[in-house]
Amino acid sequence: MIKSVCGYCGVGCGLEFEEDKLIGDVAYPINEGKLCSKGISELVSIQTPTRLLRPHIRDNINNEYKVSNWEDSIKIIADKIKNTDSSKIGFYLSGQLLTEDYYVANKLGKGFLKTNNVDTNSRTCMSSAVVAYKKSLGIDFVPVKMDDIFDSNLLIIIGANTAEAHVVFHNRIKKAKRKGLKVIVIDPRFTDTAKIADLYLPIKVGADIDFLNLVAKRIIDEDLVDYAFVEKYVNNFELLKNKFKRIPVTKMLKRTGLSKEQFEEFWTMFKENPNIISAWTMGLNQSSQGVDKNLALINLHLLTGKIYKKGNGPLSLTGQPNAMGGREVGGLSTMLAVHFGFEKESIQKVEEFWNTKGIQNKAGLTATQMLEANLDVLIVCHTDPIYHLPNRNKTEELIKKIPMVVEINAYENSETSKYAHIKLPATPWGEKEGTQTNLDRTITKQEKLTRTSIDCKPDWEIFQLIAQELGFYEAFSFKNPQEIFEEYQEMTKLNPHLNIYETSYEQLRKEPFRWGDKIIEEKLFFTENEKANLHFVENKLLSERTSLEYPFLMITGRTRDQWHSGTKTNLPRTLLKYKDLDFCEIHTKNAKDLGIEHNDPIRIISKRGEITSKAFITDNINMDTIFVPISNRDVNYITNDLLDKDSLEPDYNHNAVRIEKLKKTP
Ligand SMILES: Nc1nc2c(c(=O)[nH]1)N[C@H]1C(S)=C(S)[C@@H](COP(=O)(O)OP(=O)(O)OC[C@H]3O[C@@H](n4cnc5c(=O)[nH]c(N)nc54)[C@H](O)[C@@H]3O)O[C@H]1N2
Ligand SMILES: Nc1nc2c(c(=O)[nH]1)N[C@H]1C(S)=C(S)[C@@H](COP(=O)(O)OP(=O)(O)OC[C@H]3O[C@@H](n4cnc5c(=O)[nH]c(N)nc54)[C@H](O)[C@@H]3O)O[C@H]1N2
Ligand code: SF4
Ligand SMILES: [Mo]
After folding, report:
1. How far apart are CA 334 and CA 562, in angstroms?
2. N or C terminus: fewer CB in 10 A for the chain?
3. How far is the CA of 254 from the centre of ligand 2 (A)?
């Protein structure tokens, strides 16, 4: 029997592998033996016919790929890199990479190629939360753990659908409910998560800042402020208080679409429950004001001292299995390594540690900027930007201009592979080992369960081969993931709050390790004066507006059994299909007005493009709002490419569209 962890979502469930079968690990603290359908079917995806098993190459994206070998492919890539200015090279990584992969890619990019253009799909996902935590707490730090819900009285879930996106955590919420936890769900859709709520608030898309500011104002007006906490630990209270004197309360409530009674019901629960956790994901992050939405929520915890206290705090629910590990390593273009930025002293420390010189002193291109930057070499690893970036017609035009696109993938059917010149076969989950950090800072270990397919290589090794071909043998001579992890651990000592050095690779085989608990115990903030910052933010209505021509707002998101583009989950043998891959939720009244019936084929059109889908008529969505799951691979042909100005995360959840009924094909 081998113990490992699931490689899908940020919950990070423990599992056991025995005789070709996976079961949940009963002794594992996070999931107590439970797994969702994705976890159970991890093994199925290894054995699919759509695995990428050999290197492939072509001169031109209009030609067919030809099978190649590692030696030639790596040489072609290294030669091109040698002849390219470092500012024209980009690494497009993924929150699904293991920590060791991230470490090697980041070291190569920032440390040796001297480009900070090393970013990740987490930009489209968690970057608003990262920036907000840094602005408010002074550090990218999740100050709560999932199990804290058992010490809490009230869980506010805002802009997250745990029932489908963090399934096993959702089961834990249900368990905590049986022990008295109350749950409020705030979402424009009455989701499966809302079904377990004690109070459901059908907020209008994009109105979260208005709602959260109204709550903050009430906290101040009704003296629910924890003055002792604020005095000792928090900046900007007077400023915020003064600003809230002049906010247009009636207009703000109107924008939320909620009634006064609904707001009062919320307020009563908020006031009466001493211990409160708030949890959020894409409903807040993916917005033209994603950072501000986060800050408005964190304000509530700072004002009431409901942070760094058992059963309290703002719990950002990271989506991918190792987006957190990537953040710790420094795999975003806006940080250097181990939580360091680009200050002189940080660069010096990192240069000394890596034994290199000339690290660039400013942030590199973000994932959402790379395609527009006229790059000469783009290396995409473990993610599918053509599928996932917004305004796809534009991204397709942009990627065609890049002379060398290298795609490292374990499967052959990504959308980006249509635009790559070289495809390199990576070793997927189950055939490799390494570490990952789940959404509450718990580091877990993935184990190799089956043999590695002959011509596939783990992601770290692919970056190492490129580094070696470029001549960096000394810095890139890792024999296995353990050696990488140990070098990384040593590096975390440069920034001791990242106490990852306290565990060991061997120890992680036996039990998970959570870093950073001391930060909570000692109530540490990492701002200049070591106090947390309140921020006054307002809903600036920056997102795309609906119009007569485009009268609906489209939001997008997940369904329980599908993983994004579905290279791993859209398989004939996958166990369950709880929901279709392709549907469009539309309110009963809107459908009636358009003469659309259940399952009718429809076309959804925005200024940028169009897609087809199938109507799913329901009362569980706000009027004039539609929802399309991202398992419809075409969804980003119609999404808008506005970005949050601080995090540069896309505004995926605010797209003006119109709907047309299509003729049914006989
Ligand atoms: N099954 C499955 N699970 C996954 C994934 C997957 O692909 N499949 N992906 C993982 C990843 S990478 C991520 S990031 C997470 C995402 O996890 P979630 O964010 O929980 O998943 P989404 O379906 O995107 O849900 C976002 C919710 O926000 C709501 N929403 C949209 N706009 C607004 C708004 O303006 N305000 C509010 N309050 N709510 C709004 C939507 O209706 C939706 O219910 O899931 C992770 N888990
Ligand atoms: N409209 C809209 N767009 C969105 C979102 C949304 O909510 N709405 N959400 C955004 C968010 S939060 C996210 S996280 C992104 C997700 O978007 P992506 O990251 O593009 O989605 P995935 O399908 O998970 O892509 C992972 C890729 O890695 C490959 N792969 C699997 N295993 C391995 C391996 O071991 N090694 C390597 N090298 N490759 C492997 C898979 O085959 C797949 O092609 O989408 C973003 N885009
Ligand atoms: S909840 Fe997440 S980590 Fe747990 S089994 Fe499901 S996909 Fe895997
Ligand atoms: Mo994500």
Report:
1. 30
2. C
3. 36
